[in-house]
Amino acid sequence: MTLVVGAWTIGLILSLLAFGVFISFRVFHFSDITVDGSITLGASVTAVLLVAGTNPVAASAAAFCAGLAAGATTGVLHTKFRINPLLAGILVMTALYSVNLHVMGKSNVPLLSTHTLASYVEGFTTPLLGGRATLDIVGWEVASPDVAALLLVLVVVALVAGVLYAFFRTNLGTAMRATGQNPQMSQALGVNVGNATIAGLALANGLVALSGSLLAQYQGFADVQMGIGMVVWGLASVIIGEALVGTQQLGLVIAGAVMGSVLFRLLVAAALRAGLDPNDLKLVTAAFVFVALILPELVRRRVRT
Amino acid sequence: MLEVSDIAKTFNAGMPHEVRALQGVSLTIEAGSFTVVIGGNGSGKSTLLNAVAGTVLVDRGSIRLDGRDITSWPEHRRAALIGRVFQNPFTGTAADMSIAENLALAARRGRRRGLGWALGGVFRRELRDRVRRLGMGLEDRLDNPIGTLSGGQRQALTLLMATWHPPRLLLLDEHTAALDPRSADQIVRLSEESIARERLTSLMVTHSMHQAASLGDRLIMMYRGRVIQDFRAAEKSRLRPDDLLARFEEVRRGEQLDEPAAELLRRAYV
User: In chain B, helix, strand, coil percent, each to 5?
Assistant: First the structure.
């Protein structure tokens, strides 16, 4: 059961990553791989601040802001200097590797003895749970810190999803969605397409960094390598989410990204338990995304013939 | 209202596929006039429109609109003054977004876009009224993706979007060229209505001789990046499509001579 709770928690944490990937890949049609760097950036900024004794909420907010800056940089490279989206992302991602090493001062920062968001929340939930060390959930015994972490992440994700949904329905958010769909029209309607793209990528990477921040606090360390392949992971979640909800409707797509992320994590946990070599994980993930990308076209061809 | 002075634009300058799209075009359009620009492929008529809209920036010359020099303004800034309908119905709308959302975007043209709801109650009521006036029965489908509509319906909505707040200048870029004849007539009628109702200063590009002869109060003919003829008021109202064809034929024959000779003839007779 601890394994399942853990998978749920990580799945929810990574749904923030999925939101970010959804914004850049789906809303802006921008293949942004800054993500691999910005998720680590969020983790390393948070880790260093926590070790220095900063309040966990402030450390998480700082991670979000660092992500904003990373995304905005990619946006500026693309819109102001006309660098191809993929290359702009690669440049920033590569640069971030060094930045992350500088932030942490080494390649790995452990958070085992520091106060994290999870331990912070435990302070509130422990009295609620009557101070018990374990909790009985339908016959399964679960450590109460694990439950606290899950509840915390659930609240954060629900909050972010709600804000995101509301934002995309404001005048500003609608303009940003239109920019991704039809830049020419948006321009003719007075939207500054360059700035809207920069803002969108900043928001996307801010969410990714927040995801990295929570991940570091949950797993108890930040590592310079932890971002590798994360963009594919996020994309897999978005694709599963789209398949689950089967519509383009904004609210459902956002909910789908959460479901996709959790489901994907559960699948991974099950596969690892069933004996999948962890070294093959990224290969399998990439293969999965490849299949998901070409499947609709294959099905269409089948139907036609 | 609109003053275009001696603008020029060359695409791919210095390369084998260099295109001199505009070669010194000057044009003054008075407030409230409906000017039609006609020309064949490569005449520069679309580039002229794009230059005014800010989609392309000119190499030389200046553009003033409503007393302001907009020559170096980016397109999104000019949008505060200019409403535009594109040739392709797909260009003027965001397909996956709803009719209401597309129009909400247009309702903020030239205004600040803040964190207010895009689809407020007041806006929705006005939207329903205005869409009903198009007479297409779209007022009950406001939350449907605009991509599910026909080209004619989308173009009617794009026209509504361009004129939601009366623009200082309305640009119509061959906006019926991609439609079937019936839809094209309908869009022409809607355009005329809204231009007359709001007394909009309008500039329309077309390659339909019929539209050129029947619409507007002034007709500009373009050829190879230059204005070759300018018919106004009374002269314009006597024009027939055949006259226009004959005029183009005349110019084309001139072109068959070598360049300097054609230039000489043009100076002498045009």
Answer: 40, 25, 35
Question: Is B63 part of a structural domain of the chain?
Answer: yes
Residues of B in contact with A80 (CB under 8 A): none
Whether B173 maps to a domain, the answer reads: yes
Q: Does the distance separating the beta carbons of A170 and B86 come in below 8 Å?
A: no
What's the rounded Cα separation, in Å, for the pair B186 and A66? Answer: 53
Assembly ipTM: 0.86
Q: What is the DSSP letter of B67?
A: T
Provide the number of structural domains found in chain B.
Answer: 1
Tokens 């019936």, located at residue = B182
Q: How far apart are CA B123 and CA B117, in angstroms?
A: 10
Chain A environment of B84 (Cβ under 8 Å)? 188
Q: What is the pTM of this model?
A: 0.89
Instruction: Print the domain residue range for B97.
Output: 2-250
Minimum-distance CB partner of B116 among A171, A192, A248 = A171
B226-232 vs B68-69, strand pairing mode: unpaired
Q: Which SS3 state, helix, strand or coil, does residue A51 take?
A: helix
- 10-residue mean pLDDT profile of chain A (305 residues): values are 85 96 95 96 96 92 97 97 96 96 94 77 68 66 79 94 96 95 94 95 98 94 94 92 86 94 92 89 88 82 75
The answer to the question of residue B267 being in a domain is no
Q: The domain spanning residue B202 has which CATH number?
A: 3.40.50.300
Q: Left (φ > 0), alpha (ψ -120 to 50) or beta: where does B4 sit? A: beta
Please check whether residue B270 lies inside any domain of the structure. Answer: no
